[in-house]
Amino acid sequence: MNRTRRFISGIASGYISILCNIAYTAASIPLALHYLTKEEFGLWALAQQIAGYLLMLDLGVSFSLNRLIADQKERVDSPAYRNWLKNGALTFACLGTLMFAMGSGFALLSPSLFAIKETLARELTIILLILTVVNSISFSTRIFAAPLWAFQRMDFANLLAALSLVTNFAVLWLCFQMGLGVYSLALAGILPCFLVPFLTYLFCKKRHYYPLSFWGGSFRSDYLKRLFSFSKDIFEISIGSHLLQTSQVVILSRICGLETAAVFAIGTKLYTLISQLIYKIVESSAPGLTEIFISGNSKLFRERLDLLVSLTLFSGFVGALCLFFFNHYFVDIWTQRAFSWPQTNDIFLALTIICTAFSRWLIGLFGIVADYRSVRHLYIIEATAFIIAAIFFAFLFEIKGVLFAAIACHAAITIPFAFFSFRKATGLAHLFRPFCIAIILLSLYMFIQTGNHFCFLSQLDRFFLFLFLTLIFIGLGVLYILPRELCRGFITKIVFFNNSLR
Questions:
Q1: 164 and 267 within one domain
Q2: H or E segment and range at residue 406
């Protein structure tokens, strides 16, 4: 399987995984609400959030090990490859044990910390203990999946994630039928936590991604030192990113109330989905780019990076157009107009999509070259500035203020500093041009749509007019954002295909 096929299959399987996640959420929540009271469902949501924070004990080790193994993947039976697997296994086992100890202690303290009623206190403790055991086992067995990233088999990892969701839902439904109530939501994860590492082991073993002696190698302090030296930078970036993603709802609920926070959560669902679809391009192509970088072919590396950044920018531009055109309709239909989401909010969300599509590569490059030192503080700095600005603007403009603070901080801090480091590392300064073109085209599109130029038309006529306008701007994006070589190659294939049909 060549790099192009792996890239395409990685993206396709990633989208299948996302769609399965959406389907699982859409099906499991009504199922749970059918069998549980609102209090029990809220108890589960609280337990899930607590367990999610424990996963931050990863400390960036997973990606760090994946990247370091990639350097040795051509020599699977070499001492270095075996050493990375053995030291990685030790690290995951230690962190999994720490996760179990902390989770168990927190499970016993949670009812009093969160002032849970006595009738539900025991249930919360048991649910947290089950989740802690499941997460600890899943984390401790991550070593079996470590070679998948290095060998560019994220297609299998994504399909396995989809299978895990299907299995989880089947067990969840069975547990509800057996009358296990709120415990069903925790018990549903037990089977996937054993099934996923087992299937991963068989897959990697069959394709010789493991050395002949899986547990060969030795424990080396220098390997552990290098592993944690790289992972601490990843952890710092993850902390900043996590603060940026989770602090918005917290700020709105504290300053503007829970109802405003609920409106924000609903109004940004489509934005979250579009962002996930765009980020899959970056995630799926990173292993292939890493292989080219390790091979030392700097010319090919810059060419592929140039192409992928432009492709991601174009996808972000299309996603931003679609969000601005459709999001307010989506919120009206989904909530049956119970919530109001003005289209002016989507101005900030659409700009954020393009900016993050660009900055994702600016930051992600340094993970591919295994050196985050020049950009490791950016997200922490941005998160600090955002929280201060968001608190101030939330008092004045509520949701609009928070959205404005988010795009302003990202555009003023992360993009310029990350691009400076990116340009210094790659020399690809011209990539700022398609980014600016995408911003200009999007701004022009939003200006035309939000104006009162077409107020004499009916709502249905305006819908089809703006749909036609969206298609025109997507065409402009093809011409001015994508590289000309890619456009010429695509047009040539279309012409050749049409001629072959005659």
A1: no
A2: helix 399-409
